[in-house]
Amino acid sequence: VYTVRITIVKRTVIAALLLAALPIVARTRAVRSVPAPPPLRSVMWIGAHPDDESIIAPLLALYCREQRASCTMLILTRGERGPCLLAGGCHEDLASVRSDEAAAAAQYFNANLILLTLPDGGGVTPPPWANAESAIGTVAGEIAATNPDAIFTFDPRHGTTCHPDHRATASLVLDAVARLAHPPQVYFLETRLHIDASPFGMRFARATSSNAVLRFDASARWSAIIDDMKRHPSQFDDAWLNAVEQIPIAYRAVYIAPAPAILGETIAEGCD
Ligand SMILES: [Zn+2]
To answer: pTM score, two decimals?
Structure first.
């Protein structure tokens, strides 16, 4: 695994605005009473493709832009098997175009970008690096070096969109964290994204009614999704941007859950 490490922002002073991270809350009742996202001084987003953070962009905007948490984005592939929506094509190739887009998105979030070059699985079958020992070791090493308060990633059971790369990424994170002496808290993204083809549109829904899920009201920061998507023009054209803007206020939310709590509950995969 070759690593392209692009340091967008190097921060030597972290604003100590926030309280210490919440202790790990066991199970559902305590989580339900949390009225706001957990206070975090450092955050790591781990995704499969350069545009995956768009779904959690309002929460990253809160932590990384407003609260000035120390943020890192670890992206496992360069998304080279995705579409190219640029009118003029994607030159030299999609991997390089999307690498640049990842850098632009990381800059938007004031985040350090760690962009790996694992192969994009393409979306039909699990990627070749699913459960791979070398990939687990690489991810564990990056997490240990970053040492964040918390990691946000997909839920391995549905991957938000059911993309096998998303699910494999989450599994790698769990396997990697299990090896660490001081593992950070892991939160799963419990938003399910449904794309309607005709007419083109999308819906954001919570993956489960479990009380372990925290609903983050994203209505005040919905524009962060638009801002992030605009940094991935090879993936999102006006139809996409319009679809996001069409989401009713009441549905503008990001759902997260602490991994230990939500893994203890059954969630319908719903991917077939
Ligand atoms: Zn993706």
So the answer is: 0.88
